[in-house]
Automatic annotation (TrEMBL):
Its main location: membrane. Residues 1-24 form the signal peptide. Keywords: ATP-binding, Cell membrane, Kinase, Lectin, Membrane, Nucleotide-binding, Receptor, Serine/threonine-protein kinase, Signal, Transferase, Transmembrane, Transmembrane helix. This is non-specific serine/threonine protein kinase. In the N-terminal section; belongs to the leguminous lectin family. The chain crosses the membrane at residues 293-315. Pfam families: Lectin_legB (PF00139), Pkinase (PF00069). Coiled coil: none annotated.
Amino acid sequence: MGLSSRPLSLCFVIFCNLFLISHSLEFAFNGFNTSGVTMGGSTDIEASGALRLTPKTPNLIGHAFHRDPIPMFNSSPNASSFSTCFVFQILPDLASRGGFGFAFTLSPSPGFPGAEGGHYLGVFNSTNDGSSANHIFLVEFDTVNGYNEELDKDGNHVGINIDGMTPVASDSATYSVNGTRAKEEIDLESGDPVQAWIEYDGFGKLLNVTIAPIDSPKPIIPLLSESIDLSKVVKDSMYAGFSAATGQKYSSHYILGWSFKLNGIADPLNIDRLPFVPNVKSSSTSNVKLKNALIATFSVIIFLLLLALGGIFVYRRVLEFEHLEDWELECPRRFRYKDLYKATKGFKESEIIGIGGFGAVYRGVLEAHGTEVAVKKIMSNNALQGLREFAAEIESLGRLRHKNLVNLQGWCKHKKDLLLVYDYVPNGSLDSLLYTNSENGKIILNWEQRFSIIKGIASGLLYLHEEWERVVIHRDVKSPNVLIDAYMNARLGDFGLARLYDHGKNSHTTNVVGTIGYIAPELTRTGKASTSTDVFAFGILLLEVACGRRPVVCEAARNVILVDWVVECMQVGNIYDAVDPRLGSNYVSEEMEMVLGLGLLCSHPRAETRPTMRQVMRYLNGDEVLPVFDHLSASGSRRVDEITSRFLSLGLSESIITPVYNSSSSVGRVSTGSFHSGR
């Protein structure tokens, strides 16, 4: 049995080989002539033997096919295997960057009736594109992207297509180097010849596409490797060939050599025998490139010149600004004007939270992180004076850091606008809390809060006078300049009048500034501000907090000075008549006596009698007893009488003002008109 089967097996193998050979087809063209090739459209064979599918002319189509049909089935359900190798060359019109490319095709007939150019490459049209009735297989070598898009753009890719221009697989035109995964790009429109290999395995249903420069060997790794069953696409008899097209962009598309084999490996082309097509760039193209290069060069030079001029302009502006604003070094943070403009809603009136002699203060919310700030807009009739006030406040507050001082966050100078940015203090000024009532929805300060506020202001002034690196004279201590934060802590602000000098030296400030009612008597005589003049204003502030009255009040057609009114209460025998009636009896008598006494002592008309702020802090903290209260009786009217006599012995009675019943007259050098005029 085994012996008889061997001859049968051998006969079967011989029969199969003979069958495959009988259905094998192969050809090779190392250059072309009119024999063996069917041409259509713009295709022509040049004298050199190069097959030119299209010239450099817009809107053309060119076809070329092998004249004999290819049998695609060998009594098997699988399409026949085939291998083809060809060399192509694309010479674009560089002035417009060429187009559109070409394709290797397998089609049922040697032509494409009704085909369109451009992106359809002379194979399909807008009607049959994508139809399975086409039975067309192609590999495209495309140089223009933009199929089914509004705009064309540069393309340089290879794709595998079935029955239409939408590829089933595509990739940029590259080849692997030395069998590695490293790839190098091939510019299909470089004008240099390129080799291409297309190999289909009918049994494994695998298609490989490979490209490489003409002087390189065939790469081991193909560009495209795709599983495709061509038995569902091709018919029994197919024609192999090429199709190319131009559009508004155009190129010359050449096939220099072509080898094909059915059921086997195509013979390699003889590179030396291939026709030569010169890669000539026209003089007009060269001129265009030269012109473009010159335009680009001049554009870059002009841009650099403009950039340099802009840089010089900005640098000079910065130098000019820095020369003018030396105080910027003390407070380096500068806000952008547009950020502050947005934060205050364009400096809207509804955002104003206070108005002083130097300008309005606006509430703002910084957009970047949602922080609330107070923005002070300096206003002055004299631009130079306004700048000085602005610089003084920055110089004073820029490096000052104390819990009872308003923290300056930064500044902004924009044209004529001078802006200072502070922490936002939600409860407003001490002035607004002292002179209000619960009907307006404001808090009425109790004694514990008032006493804490007094100590906070004193602590801030002590820091300014003695604890910072230089002496700072505030020169405008008053209740509107004391802000109350969310925890009812006092924070002294508004340093627009402040002046600095070194410890151990005397102040050289000689002009009279401040607010009516807070100005020390010697300041009006000498114009010389000192820490003692700040202490005087603080004394008035102490009496304000305890009495709930302004420093100067128009009452019964006369101006009443707060200090004198408190002394009058003493003289009639009851100092407690001076206490703010809204407090009722809800206060500590000893603390109230001490605050009233300290207020009178600090606002004494003789500067040498006033205590320093360090002594003031010791009195307020209970570390020392105010001299007026030393060895007093325990309580009762006798104690009050002793306090009265001791204060009067200090010479306070000299400051009592004789009432004048004419509201327009000056009273003790203070008039109602001057009071209402502010600073």
